[in-house]
Amino acid sequence: MLQLDSIHKQYEGKPLLRGVSFEVAAGETVCLLGASGSGKSTLLRIIAGLEDAERGRVLWQGSDLSAAPVHTRQFGLMFQDYALFPHRSVAQNVAFGLRMQGLPPAEIEQRVAEALERVNLAGFARRRVTDLSGGEQQRVALARALAPRPRLLMLDEPLGALDRALREDLGQFLRDVLHHSAIPAVYVTHDQEEAFTIADRLVLLRAGRVEQQGSPQQVYQYPHSAWVARFLGLSNLLPGRVVRRQPLVVDTALGRFRAACGGEPPAAGGVVSLLLRPNGLDFEAGNAQENTFHAQVSDVVFRGEGYRLTLRSGTHSLVFHTAAALPEGWQGRLAVRAEAVWCLAEEDVDE
Amino acid sequence: MDRSLDANRAALTPPKSGGVAPPPAAVRARRLPAAWQTLGLWLLPLAFLAVFFFLPLGGILRVAAAGLLEQGLSAAGLTRLTRALGFTFYQAGLSTLLTVLVGLPAAYVFARFTFPGKGALRLLSSLPFILPTVVVAAAFNALIGPRGWLNLLAMNLFDLSAPPLNLLNSLPAILLAHIFYNTTIVLRVVGSAWEQLDPRLEQAARVLGASPWRAFREVTLPLLRPSLLAAALLVFLFNFTSFGVILLLGGARYATLEVEIYIQALHLLNLPLAGLLSLVQLLCTLLMTGLYTRITARLNIPLNPRLRGEGASAARTLRQKALVAATALLLFCLLVLPLAALAGRSLARLEPDRGQRGGFQAGLTLDYYRELFINRRGALFYVPPIEAARNSLFYAGVTVAVSLGLGLPASAALSRRAPVNRVFDPLLMLPLGASAVTLGLGFILVFNRPPLEARSFPLLVPLAHSLVALPFVVRTLTPALLSIPHGLRQAAAVLGASPLRVWLEIDLPIIARAALVAAVFSFTISLGEFGATSFLARPEFPTLPVAIFRFISQPGGLNYGQALAMSTLLLAVCALGIALIERIRLPERKE
Q1: Which of A41, A73, A100, A205 best probes binding to B when mutated, by most B CB atoms within 10 angstroms?
Q2: Cα distance from B129 to chain A (closest Cα, Å)?
Q3: Cβ neighbours, 10 Å, residue A282
Q4: How far, in Å, CA of B49 to CA of A262, rounded?
Q5: Which of residues 362-381 of B touch A (CB under 8 A)?
Q6: pTM (whole model) above 0.80
Q7: In chain B, is it the N or the C terminus that has fewer CB atoms within a 10 Å radius of its CB?
Q8: Which of A69, A209, A263 minimises the CB distance to B3?
Q9: For A222, what's the count of Cα atoms within 13 Å in the CB-facing half-sphere?
């Protein structure tokens, strides 16, 4: 439905977006994930029509929106700080978009009530928005964005201003609302856990470009680059050199590993990064020469459903999640399961 | 692994809908660039300034230059110029010094102490901000004038037949009125800076062994210096351009530049000299406003009103209590006594009226108010005073409409980020630097032909008032517009509001309060404006201040009483206005 075609945008003379393209299908929730300053919010503002792209097009069902002013696009946007109208009550805020559509008062009243019902704020209609808590304001903003039944809903870090506990609650709540409304949505966040909760599909932005996109599982399982892995909290990365292509064998400071990779395997002698997945640790090293390494347990944290082991091996520090624990200070050989070793191309540094 | 999702590669392949033609150029061009929109907003305010400010200034320049070139400056003219200039600086300097001496302790007491009635006194102290000069002059006349309370009291006590105190038409009367007017400025500017000052700084100095006076001199005073300087300069500027007070309380002997311009232009019809004086005046005021702007730019204007009163506590020692009581009493007397004298005197008959038989009748009377409705002279150009009130209200209404009509687009332009604002903003503030008398002179010099002939086009009066009010309106509206988070307008646009609708639904309701304050400001400015009006008002359409001026300078108890009655009415309207402003403003502070 929504299609972004090679969007370019500069900010204060520096390129901010450098050819961003992706699509949003009907009913789909796409999460734009990226570090702060990666241009996520600007991209939303370009889609909304609040800013113009220097190059590239925004298409809705195949037709270019460049000439369509903001107020004619029928998109919904939930602002980061909500931008609730302080001079209007909760109900008047929610009714705003409906009034702009010129609906009869009776219908507006009914749909405002529905929208407030949906965000569990049924009794709040006459309250002043300035008297609400952060979480309540967030839900009013959501109701205001949803009430006019937009063709596309955009959410700009909607949980950013809330504290931790509230974020988890409202994250789940947003997920339910988005799924039930069947409105295609673009959700901007810098928090990967939030993105995993909400997204049907992730689009990772890095330095103004799309670094990778796919379902959350896909991206998490098969990151394309060391940057993506690190961004998603996968920190067990080892630099290495390719010894053989088929099957792929890589030498690292910790020893020799057999690895899998996406697409064409890198050439022999090439420099790569190995990702050891945090759930891939095997205490039974046996006599195997490959996929094993010597390490010392430097930290053990009980995490309820299991343990988090921090291992020290040479100059490297590796973190694994395991079902059983090893005593702190334990030394010896450990193995990594073959499917838990993933080979990544060494990143091209152009940030 | 499926690498076909790689967006870097995807970006290189043409999208499926690549066949859609780009929109025609005409469609894109419909969205006017922001810079042109800003210029469009400036169009009307700038056109107004060009015709009603720069054109009159040009007229003054031309007349003064022509006069100089043709006749040169006569020795008599030079004497008048230097004498007026000297006296203007002398009285302004003296007034400023005295005002600071009164205002500084008051600022200290307001910043550091809480006391009963502080809020009321603060509210009262904002009254002089919008009181017309004519009313203040009339008030002091009612207090210390030959027919005022002081003289009446003395005559009654000592059984005298003539007023013993000759305070009117003297320098002290002028100084007193100026102190009345400007103490508030010192109180506000220095007081708020003092409030922001951490009391612990002075306490630290005391602990280190400094006496109270030493701590004040070495710690507090240096920190207050910028605000003190700014306040003093502003007070000096106001005293420098003071017109009504000097004309009414000083008399012909005490001619400042302003009064001299008025006399030369309207009484002696020496327009070239009047023009020259105006130019000197303009030069001085522009220099001072420039200096003031530079000082205040460096001044850290407190933005956080929550700090208000944090360092204030009740007076503890006997000396503190005495200081607080004395300052509050002095301030109360200074602010209230003249106004109470005015209102009281307008209701009291205390002397025999000339021409009326029956002798002395003392007591309360509403006669002076009743007489306002009667044209006793029956003369053609002598309208009943109530007509003046009607004219004033009509002019004030027009002023509100014009100044808001021009101020709104100007403020909207100023609240945008546009490079042109850096040029146009100071341009808009220029009328503040020109005195009202200069404006009036410029108007009669330039608009001396139909259709805009000063003596037949009555709307020139409210147009001049609008020029005076415009900077205040813009200075009130712009911060309100700037305070609207940009996100609100964008949220409204995304929800389907067109640009016009956004303005109506978001900007307008939010700035309504500020707009009302601006409207009250320009209404009271127009009601009280005397300098320009004295040049422009036609004899048969006087405004209230002009009528007051006429009545108060004429003999007879009835005239005097009527002048005071009109002044009291004007005072009441202005007090109502300032109360309204304070009421409207207060909820804003809470947010």
Answers
A1: A100
A2: 30
A3: 17
A4: 71
A5: none
A6: no
A7: C
A8: A263
A9: 15
Contacts of B31 in chain A (CB under 8 A): 67, 69
| Contact: B495, A144; criterion CB under 8 Å | yes
The whole-angstrom distance between A321's CA and the closest CA on chain B is 25
Contact A77 B491 (CB under 8 A): yes
Long-range contacts made by residues A226-230, C-beta under 8 angstroms, separation at least 24? A226/A273, A226/A275, A226/A344, A226/A346, A226/A347, A227/A347, A228/A204, A229/A273, A229/A275, A229/A344
Separation in Å, CA of A332 to nearest CA in chain B: 34
Q: Which residues in chain A (86-125) have CB-CB distances under 8 A to chain B? A: 86-87, 96-97, 100-101
A202 touches chain B (CB under 8 A): no
Which residues make Cβ contacts (< 8 Å) with residue B9, sequence separation at least 6?
Answer: B3
Per-residue pLDDT of chain B (591 residues; tens, 9 = 90+): 333 333 333 333 333 333 333 333 333 334 567 778 888 889 999 999 999 999 999 999 888 888 888 877 778 788 888 888 999 999 999 999 999 999 999 998 988 888 888 888 888 887 887 788 888 888 888 888 877 788 878 877 887 777 777 777 888 889 999 999 899 889 888 888 888 877 777 777 777 777 778 888 888 888 888 889 888 998 998 899 888 888 888 876 788 888 888 888 888 888 888 888 888 888 888 888 888 878 777 665 443 333 444 567 787 788 888 989 999 999 888 888 888 888 888 887 665 444 444 444 566 677 777 777 666 655 545 667 778 888 899 999 999 999 999 999 999 898 888 788 888 888 887 887 788 888 888 888 888 776 667 667 778 899 999 998 998 899 888 888 888 888 899 999 999 999 889 989 998 888 888 898 899 889 988 988 988 888 888 877 888 888 888 888 777 677 778 888 888 888 888 888 878 877 776 544 433
The rounded distance, in Å, linking the Cα atoms of A145 and A133 is: 18
Task: Check if the beta carbon of residue B107 is closer than 8 Å to that of residue B99.
Answer: no
In DSSP terms, which residues pair with A258 in a beta bridge? A249
CA distance B71 to A173: 87
Question: Which residues 484-513 of chain B have a CB within 8 Å of chain A?
Answer: 485, 487-488, 490-499, 501-502, 505-506, 509-510
Contact at CB, B494 and A77, closer than 8 angstroms = yes
CB contact under 8 A, B22 and A74: no
